[in-house]
Design a protein that fits this description.
Elements lengths: L25 H18 L7 H12 L17 H5 L4 H4 L2 H28 L4 H15 L13 H17 L3 H14 L1 H26 L1 H12 L2 H26 L3 H15 L1 H4 L6 H21 L7 H24 L11 H8 L5 H18 L5 H5 L2 H19 L10 H17 L6 E2 L7 H5 L14 H20 L8 H11 L3 E4 L9 E4 L4 E4 L4
Parallel strand pairs: 1-2
Antiparallel strand pairs: 2-4, 3-4
């Protein structure tokens, strides 16, 4: 048998080392769940920034007749598992109610997973609440590539919940459950789930190499081979592969469905035009690099403080290595993206662009503040000297202060728009008018702030800046429509208005029946609705 000190957590920790997972954990989970939900509603009032994107796509996936003709809704379904599971709510409830129920489910799952992970590491039932409050505060100060965790409901929130639960299962050596959870994470959001699995796999490889150097290659590989062929490990692999296929296959169809020329155009649009704040490291703020460098230094220092005294020892080591590996992935992404601009001046820029489109920074964006928050919670746990020096009321005060400051820093930052109250009221009134006074087969041209148009008006749009498809053909068509409108607007302006003739030609060319305008125009067409902020022109009967 391999020596216990040189194996990679082949056996679960002893019963006495396990945190109490049954009794006494309900209240901390409820507190954490409530805190996540409160932050969610405060930070991102319904509809949150991506909720119209996900929930309208969900309803159309179930009912293709709803908003038929909206090319975004009819594009590929990269997050099909979300649409077919959580999205079923849209068939029986309004979008607002679906978002509310979805948030309750998503942040309930996240709270349970978070608590499992934290109690496994700190062996303290309140560590989840402490680390959760600290995480929210850190996330409120800033992030690296624009990734967020607590906001509206979308596929990645569920995915992170499954990933954290899978990681907790690995730390408990419950491998079949880890395979189930990680497979569900990949199914719900392939990029979130797969990057987490890649980072964990790198951490396992790191441990294996370390064992080889310490005990010799033969003994280490013997241990690894015995581990790989264990029945529960084989079951974990089967569960992971089976579940993850439900998410990977639709995503692969979106990625591989176009010819090389179309894919090249789509990748360029996605990386350097539509999503550079997530994908192009040259666009990240200097403060983001400095902030995460400081956070990384703090994580290293805290790891030195808690490593030797951590309950279970190796669980914290594995978590730390996983986060370091996610940092290596992010650093590789930075190196791939560094270079002159415009991007075409970078050597091998097409290859580099193809790699950047897979969001190499998103895992690290969440993982590093997660690690720091758990490390601080461990220092404050009941089994730490610092907690002896701090009474229970002080720990409660830390939670309240961190959570309060996070709320203060985040009021409305994740909302759907940046409208004034008056403009928002006018927008909702406009959308309700469209619902009640236009045919279902209308095709509406909306202004750039139209993120919630389909949510409120329930009519298809010709193009919406926020609603960019995820398949190559859809991305290129989205860009072509925006370019066409810009060119049309520049070429057909007569100095005072857009004439009836050119406006009629716009309808003939695009099929647009109604045009919603806040500043664009005027158009020589009937104004069928007007309020303090918007006008609706009907252009299909000119």
């Amino acid at each position: 048998m391999p020596d216990a000190d040189t194996t990679m957590m082949l056996d679960p920790p002893s019963t006495r080392d396990r945190p109490n997972s049954g009794r006494g954990t309900l209240l901390p989970v409820l507190c954490l769940w409530t805190g996540f939900l409160a932050f969610s509603f405060w930070h991102a009032p319904i509809p949150g920034v991506n909720e119209p994107h996900y929930l309208t796509k969900s309803l159309h996936a179930w009912d293709a007749a709803w908003c038929a003709g909206d090319f975004f809704l009819e594009s590929s379904n990269a997050h099909l598992v979300f649409y077919r599971t959580v999205g079923v709510l849209t068939l029986v409830a309004s979008f607002a109610t679906s978002a509310l129920i979805g948030r309750v489910l998503a942040y309930g799952l996240l709270a349970l997973a978070w608590q499992r992970l934290c109690t496994q590491l700190a062996n303290d039932r309140w560590s989840g609440c402490i680390s959760g409050a600290i995480f929210l505060l850190l996330a409120s100060i800033g992030n690296f590539s624009g990734e967020w965790l607590i906001g509206g409901v979308e596929a990645k929130v569920f995915a992170y919940g499954f990933v954290f639960s899978g990681l907790a299962s690995i730390l408990r050596a419950n491998f079949w459950q880890a395979g189930l959870m990680l497979g569900a994470g990949v199914a719900m959001h392939p990029l979130v789930g797969l990057w987490a699995v890649v980072a964990m796999s790198m951490a396992v490889t790191w441990r294996l190499v370390s064992d080889c150097l310490q005990s010799g290659w033969n003994q280490a590989f013997t241990s690894a081979r015995q581990f790989a062929f264990r029945q529960d490990v084989l079951l974990a692999v089967a569960l992971f592969a089976g579940l993850s296929a439900f998410g990977v296959w639709p995503a692969l169809k979106s990625v591989l469905s176009a010819d090389p020329k179309l894919s090249f155009q789509a990748n360029y649009i996605q990386v350097f035009y539509r999503l550079p704040h997530h994908l192009d490291p040259m666009k990240f703020k200097t403060a983001a690099y400095i902030g995460y460098a400081i956070l990384g230094g703090l994580a290293w220092l805290l790891n030195r403080l808690v490593r030797d005294r951590a309950p279970g020892g190796r669980p914290l080591e594995f978590l730390s290595k996983t986060i370091v590996c996610s940092g290596i992935i992010a650093a590789t992404g930075v190196l791939i993206g560094l270079g002159p601009r415009p991007p075409a001046e970078m050597p091998y820029y097409e290859l580099r662009m193809n790699l950047l489109k897979f969001y190499p920074f998103r895992m690290f964006d969440i993982a590093l503040p997660l690690l720091v928050s758990i490390q601080l919670a461990m220092l404050l746990s009941e089994r730490r000297l610092l907690s002896v020096m701090l009474p229970a009321k002080s720990r409660t005060a830390i939670i309240v202060v961190c959570f309060g400051v996070a709320l203060w820093l985040n009021a409305g930052r994740g909302s759907i728009d940046r409208m004034t109250d008056a403009q928002r009221a006018d927008w909702v009134d406009l959308c309700f008018w469209v619902t009640e006074n236009t045919p279902r087969d209308s095709l509406i041209l909306t202004p750039k702030e139209s993120r919630s148009f389909k949510w409120f008006a329930q009519r298809p749009e010709y193009v919406a800046f926020k609603d960019c498809p995820q398949d190559a053909a859809g991305i290129v068509e989205w860009n072509n429509r925006l370019k066409f409108l810009k060119k049309w607007g520049e070429e057909n302006w007569n100095g005072q208005s857009y004439s009836a003739a050119v406006t009629k030609k716009l309808h003939t060319t695009t099929g647009i029946t109604h045009l919603v305008s806040r500043r664009w125009g005027p158009f020589d067409a009937p104004v069928v609705y007007e309020n303090g902020s918007y006008r609706v022109y009907q252009i299909d009967e000119l």
